[in-house]
Amino acid sequence: MSNNLLAGKKGIIFGALDEKSIAWKTALKCHEQGAQIVLTNAPVALRMGEINKLAEAINAPVIGADVTNMDDLKKLFEEAQAHFGGKIDFVLHSIGMSLNVRKGKHYTEMNYEWNQKTLDISAMSLHRVLRTAWDMDALNDWGSVVALSYIAAQRVFPDYNEMADAKALLESVARSFGYHYGVKRKVRVNTISQSPTRTTAGSGVKGFDSFVDYAEKMSPLGNASAEDCANYCVTLFSDMTRFVTMQNLFHDGGFSFTGVSQAIVEGMGGE
Ligand SMILES: NC(=O)c1ccc[n+]([C@@H]2O[C@H](COP(=O)([O-])OP(=O)(O)OC[C@H]3O[C@@H](n4cnc5c(N)ncnc54)[C@H](O)[C@@H]3O)[C@@H](O)[C@H]2O)c1
C-alpha cells in the first residue's frame, strides 16, 4: 500500500545483494512510496547479477562503487545526479563486512590489518559517503541519510567480534557528521539499530540462529523483520521525521530495554 510518502524524492541505496538484503527490501518500499532510486554495490557484488532483477523491478540504474574508494563514490554521486537531473534527497548505507569474522579469527587474536579494512568498509565508509556528498554539495536541504547498526555497539555479544567496534564507530560518525550537515544543509543523519535478521551478512556471525531465537524470545514484540526495517527507513526518508537527527534508533521489538522476558525465564526452567 502506498501513501506516496516519498513522492518526488530521489535516493541512492547502497547494499542490495540479494532479495534477503535489508537494502533490497528498502529499495522496493521506497519505490512503492513514489521515490526514484539509484542502486549501488561493490563491483564484486554486482558480478553476482542478482541486483539486476531489483533494478528492473523498480526501474533503477545500477552504478558500481566500492565504498572504500573515493573516486568510485565521486563517480557514483556525479552519475546519480546526472540521472536524476538534480540533487539527492536520501541515502541508505546498508553495508557491513568483517574480515576477522569471515576468516574465523577470535576477537582476542585480531588481525589488525583485517581490522582496518573492516572499520573502513563498515564504519568510516559512512564518513566517506557523507564527505563525498558534502564536497559536491549533492544533497538537498532537509535530506536524510540512514545507516544500519546493531546493539552490539552498546552491549557485548561475544561472537559479533570486531563488528561491535565497527558499529560503535559507525554510530559515532552519524552523530559527528550529523552535526555538521545539520548546520550546513539541514541534512539529518541517523542509524537504525536493527534486530538480528537472516541475511547474507547476518548469517556470517557464529551461532546466528541461536542469536535470532534468543532475541525473538527477549523482545516483547518479537524480532523486527527486514521488511519492517524497510518501512522504518521510509519514514526516516520522508518529511514526517524532519527534526530527527544524530540518533541511534532501536528497531528491535523492545529487545534493547528488556532485562529478561517471561519466555526466557520459562526456558531456564522457571515459572
Ligand atoms: N542481518 C542482521 O542481523 C543485521 C542486524 C543489524 C544490522 N545489520 C546491518 O544491516 C546492513 C545490511 O546488511 P544485511 O543484513 O542486509 O546483509 P547483506 O549481506 O545483504 O548486505 C551487506 C552489503 O554490504 C555490501 N558491501 C560489502 N563490502 C562493500 C564495499 N566494499 N563496498 C560497497 N558495498 C559493500 C555487500 O555487497 C552487501 O550488499 C549492514 O550494515 C549490517 O551490519 C544487519
Q: Can you walk me through this structure?
A:
The chain is α/β, with parallel strands linked by helices and 271 residues long. The protein has a single domain (10-208, 224-256), classed as NAD(P)-binding Rossmann-like Domain (Rossmann fold, 3-Layer(aba) Sandwich), CATH 3.40.50.720. The chain contains eleven helices and seven strands. The protein has helices at residues 22-32, 43-46, 51-58, 70-84, 99-102, 112-136, 163-185, 200-203, 208-218, 226-237, 262-267; strands spanning 10-14, 36-41, 62-64, 88-93, 139-149, 188-194, 248-251. It has a seven-stranded parallel β-sheet, sandwiched between helices. Strand 1 (10-14), helix 1 and strand 2 form a beta-alpha-beta unit. Helix 1 packs parallel to helix 3 (51-58), helix 1 packs across helix 10 (226-237) and helix 6 (112-136) runs parallel beside helix 7. The radius of gyration is 18 Å and the shape is globular. The mean pLDDT is 96.
Features:
Rossmann fold, seven-stranded parallel beta sheet, binds nicotinamide-adenine-dinucleotide
